[in-house]
Design a protein that fits this description.
Radius of gyration: 19 Å
Number of domains: 2
Distance between the termini: 44 Å
Strand order of the largest sheet: 3-2-1-4-5
Shape: globular
CATH topology of the largest domain: Nucleotidyltransferase, domain 5
């Protein structure tokens, strides 16, 4: 299947957020798209602080609903694999706009499976891996440029780790890992920062249970699936 590198910028970070910028690159045809759209709801100040897209910037832009770009995306996404970083968020945004994604690869999840890193954020990996790219952070098109380089880097890691040589096999493994939660080794936040989950499970089981209930009370797309998976594992061990 064809690969489409995709990223979105949105009105906010909530489950019902709407699209304000869409960028994607069709790896098969080489076509590049970077467009802004006027959303049907207001852009939050929190979102503006991240992507710097104001309502004035999009007031003269077309709405995504009914646009040629929406119809085009629907036609090509049906037979493609969408590659995105923290893919469930972008897939959720597309769904809010009436575009369904059939297959996808989440470079965030796959990176956690095959790489050791203090952080797996797209921009952190951009600099820690030494990608020489001129790209604005938190801009959909800038993120596409970083995403493409990260995808190619991860493909090499997958090939080496799983002794794969053919493109189809590597892509298949990336899809498999995308749907496989990762066991987290240690806390990177909170009062137990730097401690292993195993150690905290022995000394503060109540905290694990509280954190599990807190995380699973969120909307499904907003949950850290790897954290939930890890917490459930250590809670069930006790």
């Amino acid at each position: 299947m064809n690969i489409i590198y995709l990223d979105t910028e949105t009105t906010d970070a909530n489950p019902d957020a709407r699209l304000v910028q869409l960028a994607y690159k069709d790896a098969g045809t080489g076509e590049e798209v970077n467009e802004y759209f006027k959303p049907p709801v207001s852009i939050s100040f929190g979102a503006m602080a991240v992507h710097h897209i104001t309502e004035k910037m999009v007031e003269d832009k077309p709405e995504f609903e009914g646009s040629d770009q929406k119809n085009k995306l629907i036609s090509i996404i049906d037979d493609s694999i969408v590659v995105a970083h923290n893919a469930l968020f972008d897939i959720g945004i597309l769904k809010n706009e009436g575009v369904e994604t059939k297959e996808y690869i989440d470079t965030l999840r796959v990176a956690r499976h095959v790489m050791d890193s203090e952080s797996y954020g797209l921009q952190y990996l951009r600099y820690s891996l030494g990608f020489d790219i001129e790209a604005a952070a938190h801009d959909a098109w800038g993120d596409i440029l970083v995403l493409e380089s990260l995808f190619e880097y991860i493909k090499v890691q997958i090939a080496e780790k799983y002794s794969l040589s053919d493109e189809a096999g590597i892509i298949e493994k990336m899809i498999e890992l995308t749907h496989m939660p990762v066991m987290l080794p240690e806390f990177l936040f909170g009062k137990h920062r730097g401690k292993t989950f195993e150690a905290v499970a022995k000394e503060d089981q109540g905290y694990l249970e509280w954190l599990y209930n807190s995380e699973t009370s969120k909307e499904k797309w907003d949950q850290n699936e790897d954290l939930v998976y890890t917490l459930k594992n250590y809670i069930n061990k006790m």
